[in-house]
Amino acid sequence: MRVLTEEPLLRYNTLALQGRARAFLQVRAAAELERALAWARRQQLPVIPLGEGSNVVLAGDIEALVLRMAITGIELLEEDDKQASLRVAAGEVWHPLVEWTLRRGYYGLENLALIPGTVGAAPVQNIGAYGVELASFVRAVHCVDIASGREHTLAGAACEFGYRDSIFKRSLRDQVIITAVDLQLQRKPALQVNYPALAAALAQQPAAAITPQAVFDAVVGIRRSKLPDPARIPNAGSFFKNPVVAAALAAELAARFPGLPQYPQADGQVKLAAAWLIEYCGWKGRCRGGFGVHPEHALVLVNRGGSSGADLLALAAEVAASVCDNFGIALEIEPRVYGA
């Protein structure tokens, strides 16, 4: 086990922000994780897991042991003519996993295609897109307690999943390292194609042609047309959560701002489109220093040559203040901020 000290993290985050980890280690096996956590306890260092770095903002150096989770593997636990259960290691990259499941006839994840990041990070914010959330497929999450090194398994219901939320962002935040996720997928397609953008993309196809692969292809096409590739334009995807508000407030806003997209939720609340709010405030395509709002998707903040996470967060604060001034709604950022 070779722990690196003062390791630059520029190439480990998709926003291409500068920052250093006081200690850094790539973990490729369970035994290596056990030794790393024991080392951190002896050094009295906090531990921070890192996957692809696609949902983080480095606002400075990190005084911790940063573990880049690179444990891989996919195990078929159970399969019959209706369902298949998989155990997927935390270091598996999400999009190739979706491709793998489709090739083998395991369905359900097609709406979640092209979401960046690793499997271990996916339950933390309950990734979702085009009308589907990961929570629908999680059978269990396996993790290791940072303080004790003990292994735990949480059933899907115990993960307390919500919109871009889970127990791993609240009571278990910074307490555990996710090592694997058990997914339960369908052997027969049960397509979810009602989300407006997805329905529009599939509208010209006959019903018989709308297969899981067709949904996957449509989602990939939509995302590539609207979202910048982090390899070319550094970004962290959607930077703000779509706000969820009371129905009465949503109705008031609809009367004041015709055209504001609204999505009723099962609990009676209404989800609003943060991108629409930001664009209405005139931020789409605008820049501040080395950072800016993407000209094609106002929910995405991009790095145009900046290096400071603090400068990026200052831009985000300006955007959020504009939305609050115009709509009385507080935007919440999606990425986890480290080093602030």
How many beta-strand runs? 20
- What is the terminal-to-terminal distance? 29 Å
Proportion of helical residues: 10-25%
What structural class do helix, strand and pairing data support? Answer: alpha+beta
Q: What is the CATH domain class of the largest domain?
A: Alpha Beta
Largest sheet geometry: 5 strands, antiparallel
Q: In order across it, which strands form the biggest sheet?
A: 6-7-12-10-11
Considering the chains and any ligands shown, give keywords for the structure.
Uridine Diphospho-n-acetylenolpyruvylglucosamine Reductase, domain 1; 27% strand; 7 helices; Uridine Diphospho-n-acetylenolpyruvylglucosamine Reductase, domain 3; 340 residues; five-stranded antiparallel β-sheet; 3 domains; Uridine Diphospho-n-acetylenolpyruvylglucosamine Reductase, domain 2; four-stranded mixed β-sheet; alpha+beta
Descriptive report:
- With 340 residues, this protein is α+β, with helices and mostly antiparallel strands.
- The chain contains 7 helices and 20 strands.
- Strand 8 and strand 9 form a beta hairpin.
- Helix 3 crosses helix 4.
- The longest helix is centred in the C-terminal third of the chain and has 19 residues.
- The protein is globular, with a radius of gyration of 20 Å.
